[in-house]
């Protein structure tokens, strides 16, 4: 039985791991409280976010971007479609393709969720006296840039290193 805690510093810096854990918890909590009113969870939020950022994206593109299984996506997407937050349209070139678009209701909810999260980000920048958010952008880009689908998303959205 080990009774000593892992050291704060040394080979691993547990402080940064804990900062990420708590920052993510609070960042998602703002949206979670809104999602709860609809009986939705974080998977609903992710789908709404990306469908609103890239209307017309295919189900296949969404699966690759989110790195989830078809089964995981199916239930959540079905609920968003049934409750009229998202519509699914057959592809014009390939009839097997399913393209996703937000409805006005889906757009409104996405904006509400995003505004809650942006308030937290802006407040943190102010409190931490971050005068160059581009450096934070660069850091987060490096943390999240391992997968091709993510890099492709960043490229399409014009997200990259600030120059």
Automatic annotation (TrEMBL):
Pfam families in alphabetical order: MarR_2
Residue ranges of every copy of the HTH marR-type domain listed in the record: 13-145
GO biological process: response to stress
SUPFAM superfamilies hit by this protein: Winged helix' DNA-binding domain (SSF46785)
Keywords: DNA-binding, Transcription, Transcription regulation
Keyword Nucleotide-binding carried by entry: no
GO molecular function: DNA binding; DNA-binding transcription factor activity
Protein's name in the database: MarR family transcriptional regulator
Organismal lineage: Bacteria, Pseudomonadati, Pseudomonadota, Alphaproteobacteria, Hyphomicrobiales
């Amino acid at each position: 039985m080990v009774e000593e805690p892992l050291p704060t510093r040394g080979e691993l810096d547990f402080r940064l791991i804990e900062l990420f854990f708590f920052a993510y918890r609070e960042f998602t909590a703002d949206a979670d409280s809104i999602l709860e009113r609809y009986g939705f969870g974080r998977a609903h939020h992710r789908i709404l976010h990306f469908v609103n950022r890239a209307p017309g994206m295919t189900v296949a593109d969404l699966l690759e971007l989110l790195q989830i299984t078809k089964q995981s996506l199916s239930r959540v997407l079905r609920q968003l479609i049934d409750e009229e937050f998202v519509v699914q349209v057959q592809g014009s070139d390939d009839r097997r393709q399913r393209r996703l678009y937000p409805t006005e209701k889906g757009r409104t909810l996405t904006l509400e969720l995003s505004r809650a999260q942006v308030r937290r980000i802006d407040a943190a920048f102010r409190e931490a006296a971050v005068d160059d958010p581009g450096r934070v952008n660069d850091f987060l880009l490096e943390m999240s840039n391992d997968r091709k689908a993510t890099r492709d998303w960043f490229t399409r959205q014009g997200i990259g290193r600030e120059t």
